[in-house]
Automatic annotation (TrEMBL):
Biased composition, class Pro residues, residue ranges: 69-87
Organism: Acorus gramineus
Gene Ontology biological process terms, A to Z: monoatomic cation transport
Record-given protein name: Outer envelope pore protein 37, chloroplastic
Domain of life of the native organism: Eukaryota
Length: 386
């Protein structure tokens, strides 16, 4: 009679997969290793295989079975950005062409065109300028060419064949030298400006070249300036004159006293957000005048001035729409003329800030004594960048 041998349970196993999917370890444990220690097939065994691992979906999800781990991604090395390509000129191998700015202006009153062209050289170190005028027939006048840097500028008149040279340089932070020389006239000026410890206090000495008499001395301070100058009254006599300006706060305004050529001009200016009042008196002539300005809104302003000594007066009304549109109208009793003008573009600004880089002014002048001779004038200024 055959004995039925009890079925032996499969020993538990543990499978570990490494980072390489073709490499894994299998651990088997025999629960009866204490009974048959001499048999190798019943002891603990370690199997090493380099074959492909079994499909994880076909492995029994028992506590002793580990699913394969995804292989870690290789660390990425940041590649340095490519070097910037050198700027290409308008012709291969040549440096970039400098930007050229051209401004043309026409005034119908003088019927003249004024043209200006400029470009920066050596990466902004210097500037080359050209200007000339021409009439409606195309005749060119006053051609000039200039070379300007921070410390030296040369302006050459092609028609006169004359050059005006200006130069300046600093010695430290407190001393500056300036010079101007007219080559054809062989005359000029030399100046030295010294800051007296504070930039608000400066002493300037100016001498003509060739030297004639004492240099002109000007002392500037926060509340004005005083100037000493030697003047020649006749062929042999020279006198020392004193001119100066003093400013200071007085009540709610600013008082200014200006002394020049033995005349003293006293001026007081009161100004707030809506009104400006400026009375003026001149001595020893005792001429009195005043100016009055009234702002009705941020867009409307009226100015009026009256001279009590001559009874002349003038008035101006101004209306603005933004910064690029302005209308002005006024009357001057001294020349007996009424006028009105319209500005398209900032009146005090440059053409490059105006719409389409163009400024236009239209003006109508109406003489009081001859209305039939009224005139319509205009001025156009346009800038191009190449």
């Amino acid at each position: 009679m055959d004995l039925i041998q009890p079925q032996r349970e499969a020993p538990p196993s543990l499978t570990i997969f490494g980072p390489n999917p073709n490499f894994f370890l299998i651990f088997q444990n025999n629960p009866k290793r204490h009974q048959m220690p001499n048999k190798l097939n019943e002891q603990n065994t370690i199997s090493i295989s380099t074959s492909h691992p079994p499909n994880p979906t076909m492995v029994d999800a028992s506590p002793q079975t580990l699913t394969p781990l995804p292989s870690p991604a290789a660390p990425s090395v940041a590649q340095p950005p490519p070097p910037p390509s050198p700027p290409k000129g308008f012709i291969a191998g040549l440096p970039r062409r400098p930007a050229v700015r051209v401004t043309s202006e026409y005034d119908s009153d003088t019927q003249l065109f004024l043209h200006k062209a400029s470009c920066k050289l050596f990466e902004g170190f210097a500037k080359l300028k050209l200007s000339f005028q021409n009439n409606r027939e195309g005749e060119i006048s006053y051609p000039q060419i200039g070379f300007l840097t921070k410390y030296l500028s040369v302006l050459y008149d092609l028609e006169d064949r004359n050059a005006l040279v200006k130069g300046s340089f600093d010695v430290g932070r407190l001393l500056q030298f300036k010079s101007t020389h007219d080559v054809k006239a062989q005359q000029g000026e030399a100046a030295v400006i010294a800051s007296l410890g504070d930039p608000l206090y400066k002493l300037e000495l100016v001498s003509t070249t060739p030297a004639e008499g004492l240099p002109r001395a000007t002392f500037r301070f926060p509340h004005g300036e005083i100037m000493l100058e030697e003047k020649q009254e006749d062929e042999v006599k020279r006198v020392l004159s004193i001119n100066g300006i003093l400013k200071g706060q007085l009540m709610n305004g600013v008082c200014t006293a200006q002394y020049k050529d033995n005349d003293l001009n006293l001026r007081y200016c009161y100004k707030d957000e809506e009104m400006t009042f400026i009375p003026t008196i001149s001595l020893p002539s005792n001429a009195v005048s005043f100016a009055f300005k009234r702002r009705f809104s941020p867009f409307d302003k009226l100015s009026y001035s009256y001279n009590l000594d001559s009874n002349y007066w003038n008035t101006v009304y101004k209306h603005t729409v933004g910064k690029d549109l302005k209308f002005k109208a006024g009357y001057d009793s001294e020349v007996r003329l009424g006028w009105a003008s319209l500005w398209v573009g900032d009146e005090d600004g440059k053409a490059k800030t105006a719409p389409m880089k163009m400024k236009v002014q239209f003006m109508v002048q109406v003489p009081q004594d001859d209305i039939g001779s009224s005139m319509l004038m205009f001025r156009v200024k346009k800038r191009w960048d190449f």
